[in-house]
Design brief:
Low-confidence stretches: none
Mean pLDDT: 79
Radius of gyration: 29 Å
Helix content: 25-40%
Largest sheet: 3 strands, antiparallel
Structural class: alpha+beta
Order of helices and strands: HHEEEEE
Amino acid sequence: MSNRRVHGFTLIEMIIAIVIISVGLAGVLAAFVHTVKGSADPLIHKQMLSIAEEMMEEVLLKPYTALPGLPAPTLGTCARATFTAVSDYNGYDTSKVNCDATKALVTPGSFWDIDGTTPILPGYTVSVVVNVATLHGVADAQKISLKVTHSADANGAISLVGWRTNYGL
């Protein structure tokens, strides 16, 4: 018999190495899948914030009260072009109304253009509540509470609060 030393791996060592490497790769792939699954969330949040800021700016740019001689707003649709005052936005909610100007059956829950004719971002809902409140001693201030949600993001919502006073008088 020869006393020489044999170099290499045994079958048992190879099986143990394969098992250890497989467990490590499974952990890395699980972390990768979790990261990729949530990669669209920042886009959804950014779009919700953009919609919320746009709507808040739209509401705040309206007069405090409707000017005399303007037609009454069209309520119950997503068309906002006829809104003439901040208070016209009270109760505006795209999740509860038929947003289609042709009155065709449309699934509620989309953000529409100001005329209510084109769905800009499906899956996003906007709700606005306007209340008369007191703001640091100003008795007739209007508190605008705005909320934007997305159907794919059940846990997240963007909420903004703005104030409008009758500073023109």
